[in-house]
Amino acid sequence: MHKISLDARVKDHLQRAAAASTGRSSDTVYGGHEQVLRHTLIALTAGTSLAEHESPGEATLHVLRGRVRLTAGDDAWDGIAGDMIIIPPRRHAVEALEDSALLLTVAKTG
């Protein structure tokens, strides 16, 4: 068995995001492109966004810290720490409304 402290990683990645010119930092926590399941920790500083992109498969976004907005077309969902947002299977974007940390979980289909 392997245990991962998300709290420690969140703290580290929020510091990295604050120091980065892009305002973000991320790391695969478990899985990868060669596996079906992948968990990625993403830290974004307030005002930073992940530009619109295709959905990678079945996916959820668990807000660990902060507040974010996921948009897909005319639809938008706000999430705060503790919320899980089901990512729609279409183009979408994510914006950090305040310094935020997210756990993106993807199960590739096909």
Q: Counting H and I runs of at least 4 residues, what is the number of helices?
A: 1
* CATH evolutionary superfamily: Jelly Rolls
Largest sheet: 5 strands, antiparallel
How much is the average pLDDT?
Answer: 94
Q: What's the β-strand tally?
A: 9
State the name of the first-level CATH class: Mainly Beta
Strand content: over 45%
Low-confidence segments: none
Number of domains: 1
Q: Helix/strand-derived class?
A: mainly beta
Shape category: globular
If classified by CATH, what would the architecture be?
Answer: Sandwich
In short:
The chain has 110 residues and is mainly beta. The chain has one helix at 6-19; strands at 24-31, 37-44, 49-53, 58-65, 67-72, 75-80, 84-87, 92-96, 100-107. The chain has a single domain, classed as Jelly Rolls (Sandwich).
Description:
This protein has a single domain (6-107), classed as Jelly Rolls. The mean pLDDT is 94. By secondary structure, the chain is mostly beta strands. The N and C termini lie far apart (28 Å). The protein is built from one helix and nine strands, in the order αβββββββββ. It has one helix at 6-19; strands spanning 24-31, 37-44, 49-53, 58-65, 67-72, 75-80, 84-87, 92-96, 100-107. The strands form two sheets. Strands 1-2-9-4-7 form a five-stranded antiparallel beta sheet. It has a four-stranded antiparallel beta sheet with strand order 3-8-5-6, with no helix packed on it.
